[in-house]
Structure to design on (892 residues):
């Protein structure tokens, strides 16, 4: 190093001085692990690791060894350095520094310190000094080394117990003393040996090394395949493997819950787990499903991750990835549920933070044509991007954009859909540049300072410019229902869920987001307690094992304070959101009145619009400012109406007007109505023949006679769709613009030149592969045997025949056979039952007030907990090795 530095004589000397100065400082501060072999002085110990810095003396190291190995203090000891196997021993003076000696050893000696016979054997020995000053050797050095080496191998193979004072165990439950200190020291010692994984029973601890270790290649996938936990060195693959085989053997769903603070490695661990879970099931062959699952990672990352002060690639949402398997253990598909995306980041970022990655990727990676058609500018020219920082060290945005495009393709986004998404992103950025001014001095109404942005946004969103201007400058007070996101349920399939949820947060200013995040953590901690302490102890008791109950912090009180009906904080907040006169103070007063005296809540002594919650992980102070606004984060109806009017099917889809869902229900209705019609027509026919009036109620006869259901706009629309579907023509034009669509939310999407080749975006905003509309049915659904022909189609054909013969019927629909299987219908009704369009088509929901954000969040958490409760859990706890994201494993 010094030679190289010296060689760069033309480099700026000031720079060099700074660089070498900081390098020197770093070396001074670094901690190294010395392995000292005590030989006969401590029977059973092969070597004892001692932490030392560059200036730690031999005397200090010996003092530490006396302590650790509990040696006789009345005796004298020295450190001896052995260079090369069988070579001479060099006795260190008390003031010599062993680390400095070690730094002169060849690299191979440091990398292979235990290897006997490597040719490069360098080590420190602890020797006893006789009274006359001579060294007490107690046997030949070579002999002694051979014996200790043999013993080491025996220990490694499990024939001898782990000696005290040697390497900390891989499962900390086997530590003789289970104190916090002992646990931390063991983790630290293991980390220094680049062992980032450690078990505490079945819990896996991961310490983020901020450098990639070569322990994730296929060799390791194979190594950990089908082993009981704890047999091999701890590894994240071992957890995935155990979950996989437990699922297959016990036929029960499994889940892996990953927790830890921001930047501790949760997402990385999730990626490793998913990789291993898919690799296990494919046994080395990358299948289409695996490609899609792995491709989803970069897409989620681009849209949901951002640079924060703590992590350059921080996930700003929680996610639960459920990998679903067939009975045989082959991956069937995966499903991602997302929680609480940080929306505020779009418009505002804190110091040293950025907006979502995808914006920077797009601006850096778009081609010249794309730049033109999306009207792209430079990042500095957008208000949403130029608030603080633009770059992240070491990133290659062009490459990232290419990677994103590839990943989007892998997961099934067609080029048209991708274009529509990027167009929307560009519209968001331009919208952020709109500036307002007062219209007139006396008037409070507003106008737009830079109207030149409007045609651009209107083009990108495919909405009328006048409507856009109106939506941006006026506010309508009518409220409409908001979407309630209910995930699809894939019934009766084995699964392994991986939960990567935001960690506990306590910042300088904590708001509603932190309150929700920390509540989620309380719920997960409760789940953890249930499994690790409560259920385990109950099992011991049931089996008659002597067991003293251990105390753990039961956080039910805190959970009740926040969410238990009817007076919990979330409910009081909802109440206040309904009062137009409410203020921060009235909210706080309500909290106080209801919960004064509750040990989980405090109010600051100084008049401050804040409250303090005693969480399991510590106290957090929340400022109530914006709580009410953030809890009622509803889309304004006029903005929703504007976006609904877009000619772009993707944008309509975002507003819950999912053409695919509308289509599905239209098909369903057509089917059932036709079925009823056919039955009734049959009965009527029989009645005519037999003259038996009583067999047919009049009302029914009337209905069938007139086929009034066909005149219902829903039905007309359904039949049109079916007809078009059959003809494989997807450019649908509005036939009857005056059709009343009030109870048909979403059908206007069908009237636009929707890109039917695109993948549908589900009502919950999820891109849905199964949503592809094609005349042969969705490929994904076909795979599941959904749109298959069946005998029921014959029935429909006959029903259809009757319909066509009827004079009143103006439309001549032809029902495609493949859409008529009863199983398909059942499937469709189960997957669409909860979506808003379905509800409105079935009149299941009247215009109710939309649920508050906290209510939605609680509902999705409850759902998650239900899933977790039905699974066997594994826990992965991630720890950040340092706050500076520095590569440290071997040096800490
Ligand atoms: N096992 C690992 N090996 C190597 N590097 C890792 C490992 N785990 C994490 N890292 C590094 O640490 C960085 C932060 O990790 P990650 O993004 O997974 O944290 P996180 O806990 O998900 O953070 P957040 O909650 O902010 O999303 C990663 O970008 C990666 O560089």
């Amino acid at each position: 190093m010094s030679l190289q530095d010296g060689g760069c004589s033309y480099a700026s000397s000031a720079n060099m001085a700074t660089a070498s100065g900081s390098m020197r400082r770093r070396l001074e501060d670094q901690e190294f692990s010395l392995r000292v072999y005590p030989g006969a002085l401590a029977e059973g110990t092969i070597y004892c690791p001692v932490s030392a810095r560059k200036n730690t003396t031999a005397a200090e190291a010996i003092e530490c060894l006396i302590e650790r190995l509990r040696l006789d203090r009345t005796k004298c000891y020295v450190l001896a350095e052995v260079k090369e196997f069988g070579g001479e021993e060099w006795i260190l003076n008390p003031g010599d520094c062993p680390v400095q000696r070690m730094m002169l050893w060849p690299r191979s000696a440091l990398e292979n310190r235990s290897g006997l016979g490597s040719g490069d054997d360098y080590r420190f020995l602890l020797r006893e000094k006789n009274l006359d000053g001579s060294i007490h050797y107690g046997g030949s050095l070579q002999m002694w080394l051979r014996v200790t080496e043999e013993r080491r191998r025996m220990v490694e193979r499990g024939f001898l117990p782990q000696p005290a004072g040697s390497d900390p165990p891989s499962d900390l439950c086997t530590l003789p003393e289970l104190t916090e200190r002992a646990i931390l020291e063991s983790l630290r010692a293991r980390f220094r040996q680049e062992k980032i994984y450690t078990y505490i029973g079945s819990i896996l601890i991961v310490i983020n090394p901020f450098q990639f270790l070569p322990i994730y290649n296929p060799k390791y996938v194979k190594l950990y395949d089908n082993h009981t936990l704890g047999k091999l060195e701890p590894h994240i693959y071992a957890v995935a493997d155990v979950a996989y085989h437990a699922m297959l053997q016990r036929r029960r769903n499994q889940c892996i819950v990953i927790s830890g603070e921001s930047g501790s490695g949760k997402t990385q661990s999730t990626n490793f787990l998913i990789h291993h879970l898919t690799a296990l099931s494919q046994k080395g062959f990358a299948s289409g499903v695996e490609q899609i699952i792995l491709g989803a990672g970069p897409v989620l990352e681009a849209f949901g991750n951002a640079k924060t002060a703590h992590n350059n690639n921080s996930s700003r949402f929680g996610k639960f990835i459920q990998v679903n398997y067939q009975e045989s253990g082959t991956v069937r598909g995966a499903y991602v549920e997302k929680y609480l995306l940080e929306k505020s980041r779009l418009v505002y970022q804190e110091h040293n933070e950025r907006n979502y990655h995808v914006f920077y990727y797009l601006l850096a990676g778009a081609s010249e044509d794309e730049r033109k058609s999306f009207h792209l500018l430079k990042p500095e020219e957008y208000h949403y991007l130029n608030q603080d920082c633009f770059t992240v060290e070491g990133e290659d945005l062009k490459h990232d954009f290419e990677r994103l495009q590839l990943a989007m393709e892998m997961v099934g986004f067609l080029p048209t859909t991708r274009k529509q998404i990027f167009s929307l992103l560009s519209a968001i950025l331009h919208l952020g540049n709109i500036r307002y001014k007062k219209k007139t001095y006396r008037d409070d109404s507003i106008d737009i300072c830079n109207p030149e942005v409007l045609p651009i946004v209107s083009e990108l969103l495919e909405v009328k410019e006048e409507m856009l201007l109106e939506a941006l400058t006026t506010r309508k007070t009518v409220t409409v229902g908001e979407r309630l996101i209910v995930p699809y349920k894939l019934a009766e399939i084995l699964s392994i869920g991986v939960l990567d949820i935001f960690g506990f947060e306590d910042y300088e200013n904590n708001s509603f987001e932190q309150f929700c995040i920390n509540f989620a953590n309380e719920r997960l901690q409760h789940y953890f307690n249930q499994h690790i302490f409560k259920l385990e102890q109950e099992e011991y008791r049931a089996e008659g094992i002597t067991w003293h109950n251990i105390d753990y912090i039961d956080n039910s009180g805190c959970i009740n304070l926040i969410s238990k009906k009817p007076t919990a904080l979330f409910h009081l907040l909802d109440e206040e959101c309904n009062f137009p006169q409410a203020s921060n103070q009235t909210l706080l007063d309500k909290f106080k009145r209801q919960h004064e005296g509750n040990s989980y809540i405090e109010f600051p002594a100084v008049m401050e619009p804040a409250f303090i919650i005693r969480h399991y992980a510590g106290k957090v102070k929340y400022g109530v400012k914006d709580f009410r606004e953030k809890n009622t984060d509803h889309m304004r109806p006029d903005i929703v109406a504007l976006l609904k009017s877009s000619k772009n099917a993707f944008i309509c889809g975002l507003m819950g007007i999912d053409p695919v869902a509308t289509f599905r229900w239209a098909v369903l209705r057509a089917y059932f109505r036709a079925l009823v019609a056919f039955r009734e027509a049959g009965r009527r026919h029989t009645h005519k023949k037999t003259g038996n009036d009583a067999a047919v109620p009049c009302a029914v006869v009337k209905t069938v006679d007139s086929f009034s259901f066909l005149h219902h706009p829903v039905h007309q629309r359904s039949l049109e769709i079916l007809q078009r579907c059959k003809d494989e023509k997807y450019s649908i034009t509005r036939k009857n613009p005056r059709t009343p669509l009030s109870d048909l939310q979403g059908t206007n999407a069908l009237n636009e030149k929707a890109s039917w080749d695109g993948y549908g975006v589900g009502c919950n905003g999820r891109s849905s592969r199964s949503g592809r509309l094609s005349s042969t049915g969705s490929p994904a659904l076909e795979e599941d045997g959904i749109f298959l022909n069946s005998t029921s189609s014959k029935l429909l054909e006959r029903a259809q025949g009757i319909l066509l013969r009827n004079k009143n019927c103006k439309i001549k629909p032809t029902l495609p056979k493949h859409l008529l299987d009863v199983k398909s219908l059942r499937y469709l009704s189960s997957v669409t039952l909860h979506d808003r369009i379905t509800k409105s088509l079935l009149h299941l929901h009247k215009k109710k007030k939309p649920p508050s954000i906290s209510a939605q969040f609680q509902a999705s958490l409850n759902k998650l907990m239900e899933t977790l409760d039905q699974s066997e859990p594994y826990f992965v706890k991630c720890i950040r090795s340092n706050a500076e994201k520095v590569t440290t494993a071997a040096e800490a």
